[in-house]
Amino acid sequence: MATTISRFSITDLTQRFRWLWMINAFFMPWLALIGIIPAIKTGNSAWLALGFIIFYVAIPILDYVSGQDPNNHDEADVPALDADNYFRWALFVALAGVIVVWFSAIAYAWYAQLSILGLAALALSCMGLGGAFLNLGHELGHKKNRPERWAASLALGIAALPHFSVEHNRGHHRDVATPHDHASSRLGENFYRFMFREMPGTWLRGWRLEADRLHAKGLSFWSTKNEILPGAIITLLFFTLVGALCGPTVLAFVIITSLLGHTNLTAANYVEHYGLLRQKLDNGRYETPQPQHSWNQNSLISNLITFQLQRHSDHHAHPSRRYQCLRHFDDVPQLPAGYYAMFLLAYIPPLWFKVMDKKVLNWAANDIDRINVLAGKREHYQAKIATLAHS
């Protein structure tokens, strides 16, 4: 796990090396298809899963080698940086790149007449594309101008998660780090239990929030003002087009791959707020979200390819702040590794608990009332804290 300080910093990535953000359009998405050549050469379709291995093995290694970047911009430079349209266009170009690669993957799956094994291997590699769509939809969906909001609908529609912007902006950001949030994981809750709570919970909350908003305005759910419907129409048209042109087998591949892509979002939600809790005030409301209510991470490579998503502490405290401006804070919970390594750790609950439970308890100074604990596990952790106190 990286502890070294990177030779490069966020200021390098927004100045002399700003072109590196374009790897999210012209290089990273294509790694999902890197296994096609060895699969063709060897006749072994298992090679199609190579992209999955690269994301979960090579990227954590690169994070370790490249080190951490805890640097921030001078706040006096932030207004000009925020207004620099290059960084907005980097998102649009990245979205176009991911669309091209995803459509190429679908065309290959249809043309090559892949076996079930081949489709499964390709789906594993392409699940990262779903994560890319959702990450871009997340960043674009936080903005107010029409081009970015429409681009977010396109990204989320193709990813088959059209409700995400509504749910995330009006639900998750409101309830984050409280027991009421479907997308905040609790101490003692394993990834798979969380997934079966988060996925249906966020779906229902997103649609309900939009229905309630429209009802309050006296509008029909089917109104053109419905912010979810454009993405939902794109999802329906996309699946219909794939089914009509490529047949039911490839359509099933696309749907399953999309669902796998959704697990990237679930994994991100799982690691971003594990065990963290906002305190309830005397008036019954929870305190305003602060940087300390999200886990932060500064691995240089992972931050580059996720548009600084790992600087999640600043994002939740200042949701409208653009990715190139997000800050590191010293006094917030820090993940021990980048997201790709943490996702892999989350998939193995005993390892996750061994690493992260200690960090949660240390952050909360062993105060159970400062922790978002899974129902039924409170006594277990109280006993653990008592043991630590007497050791």
From TrEMBL:
Alphabetized Pfam families for the sequence: FA_desaturase
Membrane topology: Multi-pass membrane protein
Keywords linked to the UniProt accession: Cell inner membrane, Cell membrane, Iron, Membrane, Metal-binding, Monooxygenase, Oxidoreductase, Transmembrane, Transmembrane helix
Major localization class: membrane
Transmembrane intervals: 20-40, 46-65, 86-110, 116-136, 228-256, 337-353
Domain Fatty acid desaturase: 119-341
UniProt-annotated location(s): Cell inner membrane
Protein family: Belongs to the fatty acid desaturase type 1 family. AlkB subfamily.
Name of this protein: Alkane 1-monooxygenase
Organism: Zhongshania guokunii
